[in-house]
Design a protein that fits this description.
heterodimer; A: 309 residues; mainly alpha; 13 helices; B: 315 residues; MetI-like fold; two-stranded antiparallel ribbon; Oligopeptide transport system permease protein (chain B); transmembrane helix (chain B); transmembrane (chain B); MetI-like (chain B)
Chain lengths: 309, 315
């Protein structure tokens, strides 16, 4: 386990620097003036241009620019927004809201997704299974922002069960509807993944052995089938964080939530390039770290990985 | 057929037709063995979802190629007097906020979505197959290098990376969006291709080719790549659908196709202001988009089942 953890940590270092450099490289070495590109249709004042040149070391070679950026990054300086507020400060105030939304979505997609997938896998070919498959395909093919608009319209406007926009403090009960929207696509993927791996595991030798030694059906299903079926689901949750982040940008934009995603959404809409780039760089770093965590969790769940060198 | 042995015991010998030898004898060597693709075709053509998705995809592609065959009203012949009106004679789906015909805009918007989806899928597949095949076949330093570079691109979620690039790119055409999406999406195909090539490389027919003195490049092109493509084709079909969703998401955020380009994503994004008064303006293009994506997902599912012998046996 220690060997595995060490190896993973070492492998993460080039990925971390590579991914941040990639974003940096894309923004600042495109043909043309990066400052003009960042500000879209507007022309910033000469003072702002000079400030940005100094801030990003634009008159120095790209690698030197990147080096300065990373040094600042590790000292907690994540860049500044269009209006000059430090990204770290905006992050700190917006993060709790997004964390609450993401937790709600995660709880929903993980529990409901695994439950529906398990039942569908156990009753393969029956009505429940067929409808679960159809619903999951539909949820995947309808874009998140359409699901968001429709649910907002039906539950917020027509039925009046929920508020169409979330208030500033974003209490949990107002976040239920946005969380359902955010969770919808991942829920569909988890259903399909769990169903496939449950139906595979039902035919596995260890399940036959467990049944043969006289264990009750509920015990075989929960302890032997379900636990082994969770391994691919956990891996998926790590990769899925990327689409959850995009989903948060869209969902928080639609429901006007003052979280990290909502901030990025407004910055994209207003053409505030520096804010978008700083925030997404931080998101990618979180994504890389979360996947490292999932890798380690994966090893804890699956003994075959723990002992393999 | 009882026969008497010298010891006087009776033995029963099965008729030749009842033994496994008969099956071997029946093999006609002049006939070619059935390929994976022939088996897959047999399994696919029995499934209704294969026919439904193929017919839909064919229809969508024809609409994308010849939109004027399907819509009589020009999509840019808009009359503000009809703003957000419901269905009328000759305008089955009603009008947008600008008073344009919704049906005609859907028909003419097909091209943008399909172009982005097809082009991005082709780029990702071409790049992924070449990189993955070389890395898996030659191994060693090349493999290590390519895999680590792939890890870096894989660490940036596709749409997040596309948001960054699109918000600094001045040109926003279907081609730029397709290129931007494929920059971040190729490692997935490359990884799958590498895995498939690794297992094909160790198969008997490759060992046989090496023993016969066939050159490395010929083995790679004639034997290894054709036999490793099945999983790539499945993933490519599914990603075509996800690229179309990604384009719509970018257009919705305002950094996808330029607002002058007719596309489902742009239309859905522009319709959000009128959803309360006339939801049809948002729902119809969204339905067109979802049916297209659904068709590719269904086809991907059928292909997966057909190309994986283990999955075929399980069904």
């Amino acid at each position: 386990m220690l060997w595995y953890t060490g190896k993973r940590l070492l492998q993460m270092i080039p990925v971390f620097f590579g991914a941040t450099f990639l974003i940096y490289f894309m923004v600042f070495s495109l043909p043309g003036d990066p400052i003009a590109a960042l500000y879209g249709d507007r022309t910033p004042s000469p003072g702002v241009i000079a400030q940005i040149r100094a801030q990003y070391y634009l008159d120095q070679p790209l690698l030197v620019q990147y080096f300065h950026y990373m040094v600042g990054f590790f000292q907690g300086d994540l860049g500044t927004t269009y209006s000059g507020r430090p990204v770290s400060e905006v992050m700190a105030s917006a993060f709790p809201v997004t964390a609450r939304l993401a937790m709600l979505a995660l709880i929903f997609e993980a529990f409901a997704g695994v439950l529906v997938g398990l039942i569908a896998g156990l009753r393969k070919g029956k009505l429940f299974d067929a409808s679960a498959l159809v619903v999951s395909l539909l949820l995947i093919s309808v874009p998140t922002f359409v699901i968001g608009f429709v649910l907002q319209f039906v539950f917020g406007v027509q039925l009046g069960w929920a508020r169409t926009t979330v208030s500033g403090e974003a209490p949990l009960n107002e976040l239920i509807l946005p969380a359902l929207v955010l969770a919808s696509v991942s829920f569909a993927y988890i259903v399909r993944l769990t169903r496939a791996s449950v139906s595979d595991n039902l035919n596995a030798d260890f399940v036959r052995t467990a049944t043969a030694k006289g264990l009750s059906r509920p015990r075989v299903v929960t302890v032997h089938v379900l636990r082994n079926s969770l391994v691919p689901v956990v891996t998926f949750l790590g990769v899925d964080l990327g689409s959850l982040m995009v989903g948060a940008i869209v969902t928080e934009g639609i429901f006007n939530i003052n979280g990290v995603g909502g901030t990025v959404y407004k910055a994209i809409k207003l053409g505030e390039g520096p804010t978008v780039v700083s925030f997404i760089a931080v998101m990618v770093v979180i994504f890389v770290l979360a996947n490292l965590l999932v890798d380690l969790l994966y090893a804890a769940l699956d003994p075959r990985i723990r002992y393999a060198k | 057929m009882p026969s008497n042995s010298p010891s006087g015991q009776t033995h029963y010998v099965a008729e030749l037709e009842d033994t496994p030898v008969a099956a071997v004898d029946r093999l006609d060597e002049s006939q070619k063995a059935r390929s994976t693709w022939a088996d897959a075709w047999d399994s696919m053509r029995r499934r209704p979802s294969f026919w439904i998705s193929s017919v839909l995809i064919l229809l969508i592609v024809v609409v994308a190629l010849f939109p004027s065959l399907f819509a009589q009203t020009a999509p840019d012949a808009c009359d503000l007097g009809n703003s957000n009106d419901g269905p009328a004679a000759g305008h089955p789906l009603g009008f947008t906020r600008q008073g344009c015909d919704v049906y005609s805009r859907i028909v003419f918007g097909t091209q943008a979505s399909i172009t982005v989806g097809l082009l991005a899928t082709m780029l990702v597949t071409l790049f992924g197959v070449i990189i993955g095949a070389l890395a898996g076949f030659y191994g060693g330093l090349l493999d290590a290098l390519v895999s680590r570079i792939g890890d870096i691109f894989f660490a940036v979620p596709t749409v997040l990376g596309a948001i960054v690039l699109m918000s600094v790119l001045p040109v926003r055409t279907p081609v730029t969006i397709a290129v931007v999406l494929s920059i971040f999406a190729w490692p997935q195909i490359a990884r799958i291709m590498r895995g498939a090539v690794l297992s094909a490389r160790n198969s008997d027919y490759v060992t046989a080719s090496i023993a016969l003195g066939v050159s490395n490049s010929k083995i790679l092109l004639r034997h290894v790549i054709p036999n490793s493509l099945a999983p790539v084709i499945v993933i490519a079909t599914v990603s075509l659908g996800t690229f179309i969703v990604a384009e719509a998401t970018l257009s919705f955020l305002g950094i996808g196709l330029g607002s002058d380009v007719m596309s489902w994503g742009n239309d859905i994004g522009q319709a959000q202001t009128s959803i309360r008064t006339s939801p049809q303006v948002l729902l119809y293009p969204a339905a067109a988009l979802s049916i297209t994506v659904l068709s590719f997902l269904m086809l991907g599912d059928v292909l997966r089942d057909a190309l994986d012998p283990a999955a075929r046996a399980r069904r």
